[in-house]
Amino acid sequence: GMVPIAKEITHIQHYIDIQSLRFSNKMNVNFEIKGDISSLNIAPMLLITFVENSFKHGNLKAPIRFVLNLENGIEFITENEIGSINKDTSSGIGLENVTKRLQLVYPKKHVLEINQIENIYKVHLKILPK
């Protein structure tokens, strides 16, 4: 089933708050929301993987940016500097799982781009409107 996008936003905001507390509010995190959050639904826990990865692999002293644009479908962007110390050597199962979920839930209705340019890591997910 689907959940209201507002519920996912709350979950993301709580995760960011927890990370901020963990690091004594010394992080520079910007979460920008554009559009109406009252009427859209999304597959649950879909966006949190990208948020978690920004903290898990990012340089927490550099700005972390999240943008959720709901003006024409669902567009989610994360952008962060890659940390110099690899905190986790896991195999990327989170990204693999979210990619599979996108293919199952939004077949041919999504575009996922993951890029690294120098030391900047960027995720751009677009879920097309129905």
Helical stretch count?
3
* Distance linking N and C termini: 16 Å
Largest sheet report: 5 strands, mixed
- How much beta, percentage-wise? 25-35%
Order of the strands making up the biggest sheet: 2-4-5-7-6
Helix coverage percent of residues? 25-40%
Class inferred from helices and paired strands: alpha+beta
List keywords for this structure.
130 residues, alpha+beta, five-stranded mixed beta sheet, two-stranded antiparallel ribbon, 3 helices, 7 strands, globular
Overview of this protein structure:
The chain has 130 residues and is an alpha+beta fold. Helices cover 32% and strands 31% of the residues. It has a 5-stranded mixed β-sheet with strand order 2-4-5-7-6, covered by helices on one side. The chain is globular. The model has no long low-confidence stretch (mean pLDDT 92).
Note the topology.
Elements lengths: L2 E2 H18 L6 E6 L6 E2 L5 H10 L6 E6 L4 E8 L11 H13 L4 E8 L2 E8 L3
Parallel strand pairs: 2-4
Antiparallel strand pairs: 1-3, 4-5, 5-7, 6-7
Helix pairs in contact: 1-2
Could you write a compact summary of the structure shown?
The chain has three helices and seven strands; from the N terminus they run E-H-E-E-H-E-E-H-E-E. Strand 4 and strand 5 form a beta hairpin.
